[in-house]
Write a structure and sequence with these properties.
mainly alpha, about 50% helix
Length: about 70
């Protein structure tokens, strides 16, 4: 009977020690995280793009019949 109580106490102590060490305390070697790709620049709407607006202005001036 004493052996059974000692065994239960030993298991409880081992579990508490493993939990106190953190989640990776007995999990073995950790795999490295994959490298994160840098975030790309989100697309710009045409009406927010200054280059697009300049080109649109050039085309409008050319198409209105005035000389280049």
């Amino acid at each position: 009977m004493a052996f059974l109580v000692l065994l239960v106490v030993a298991v409880v102590v081992v579990v508490l020690v493993m939990r106190a060490g953190g989640p990776s305390a007995g999990a073995g070697p950790r795999r490295p995280r994959p490298a994160r790709r840098p975030r790309s620049v989100p697309p710009v709407a045409p009406d927010d793009d200054p280059e697009f607006l300049r080109e649109l202005g050039r085309r409008a001036r050319r198409d209105d019949g005035s000389p280049n």
